[in-house]
Amino acid sequence: MASDMNNRKSLADFRHDALQETSSTNSVCLERARAGDPGNLWVTAERQTGGRGRRGRPWVSEPGNLYASLLLIDPAPMDRIGSLPLAVAVAVHQAVRSVLPLAAEPVEIKWPNDILIGRKKTCGILIEGEAMPDGRYALVIGIGINIAVMPDNPMYPVTCLRQQGSMVSPDELFAHLYATMSEALGAWNRGKGIREITARWREVACGIGEKITVNLPDRSILGHFTGIDDNGLLMLETEDGRIMPIAAGDVFFR
């Protein structure tokens, strides 16, 4: 049986394919998986013509920003996959923070994996999975980071790295992300390192202890954000004093 150290990722384990333009880097990764790619493959594009965010929302993908997707094959047993978004958020947070000037506004993670600078969204992360006919499971982590461009009419406040005083290029930012993702996935260790990841996540979390609204597909719930449990579920103290675990939803600060 392989030791945990053999499961740990190093930079040499990953490959990178840089494209000028594609419909969506997530779609490219899924196509590669269906064609038998062994995974640990990064795909980046200077521009996407069909980028997508959560719940099918379009993701503005003009040149100047970072559009990257990482293909993983069988990254963990299915009962441990749920904590992966936290590890991804920790990696992206670290990459973004490393390219900002010291005087920049605080960089925080909004549950589960939005990166905020001064409470304004600067990054979207979309994780998609697909079971392959040969029994493998393909998981794609799509990451879009606003460097120079941002949406005109967003649902909530947005910013970009230029506004925050960073002159980083997409290639430079990707080099940071390539390293921080390798390290965070190594620490996550196929889900065995979830305690270390949740501890890191809590250190840079946005809004713990504050009043929030969580929009679920069928309703909105108000309450206090008391933190996350060791599996990464949001713990919401509702107005009648109950603690409600939430696995997925859109969080809005009051």
TrEMBL record:
Instruction: Tell me yes or no: is Nucleotide-binding among this UniProt entry's keywords.
Output: yes
Q: Where is the BPL/LPL catalytic domain?
A: 15-189
What GO MF annotations does this protein's record show?
Answer: ATP binding; biotin--[biotin carboxyl-carrier protein] ligase activity
Keywords recorded for this protein, A-Z: ATP-binding, Biotin, Ligase, Nucleotide-binding
What EC number(s) does its UniProt record assign? 6.3.4.15
Q: Please name the InterPro entries in this protein's record.
A: aa-tRNA-synth_II/BPL/LPL, Biotin_CoA_COase_ligase, BPL_C, BPL_LPL_catalytic, Transcriptional_repressor_C
At the top level of its lineage, which domain of life is listed? Bacteria
Which species does this protein come from?
Answer: Rhizobium lusitanum
Q: Which GO terms describe its cellular component?
A: cytoplasm
- Protein name per Swiss-Prot or TrEMBL: biotin--[biotin carboxyl-carrier protein] ligase
Query: Can you state which reaction this protein catalyses?
Result: biotin + L-lysyl-[protein] + ATP = N(6)-biotinyl-L-lysyl-[protein] + AMP + diphosphate + H(+)
Transmembrane portions of the chain: none
PROSITE patterns found in the cross-reference section: BPL_LPL_CATALYTIC (PS51733)
